[in-house]
């Protein structure tokens, strides 16, 4: 189960790298604006905020990836702690999103479902 959790955590990390790209480099492009539901004006005004948020997503992905590598290398306590910190933060951010704006349920689900599954699988894998 731990391996399944690490694979799910890897998928979650990749999703967050993609979100980093969208928020940090493609924020004002039409497709990204459609994805996030922003106008040209809103995208321009919020560009610095999106850049910052994008980097937060990248850092969560990096923490998760380092945890996966450490766990795979046999440093299970440290690696699992990082995987759970990264994916747990991803999950928490998705909950904040849906609580703050219920119309963003779909985005929150995209952002949080795989991290939730990763957290559950890693915890189960560690307790078996």
UniProtKB/TrEMBL annotation:
Keyword annotations: Membrane, Transmembrane, Transmembrane helix
Keyword Transmembrane helix: yes
UniProt keyword Transmembrane helix present: yes
Name of the protein described by the UniProt record: Membrane protein
Species assigned in the record: Promicromonospora thailandica
Organism phylogeny: Bacteria, Bacillati, Actinomycetota, Actinomycetes, Micrococcales
InterPro entries: DUF1304
Residue stretches spanning the membrane: 6-27, 55-73, 79-99, 106-126
Organism superkingdom: Bacteria
């Amino acid at each position: 189960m731990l391996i399944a959790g690490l694979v799910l955590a890897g998928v979650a990390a990749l999703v967050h790298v993609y979100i980093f790209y969208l928020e940090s480099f493609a924020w004002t492009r039409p497709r990204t604006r459609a994805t996030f539901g922003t106008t040209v004006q809103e995208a321009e005004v919020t560009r610095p905020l999106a850049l910052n948020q994008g980097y937060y997503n990248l850092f969560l992905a990096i923490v998760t990836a380092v945890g996966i590598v450490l766990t795979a290398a046999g440093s299970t306590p440290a690696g699992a702690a990082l995987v759970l910190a990264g994916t747990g933060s991803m999950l928490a951010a998705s909950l904040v999103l849906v609580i703050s704006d219920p119309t963003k349920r779909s985005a929150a689900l995209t952002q949080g479902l795989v991290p939730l599954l990763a957290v559950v699988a890693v915890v189960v894998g560690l307790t078996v």
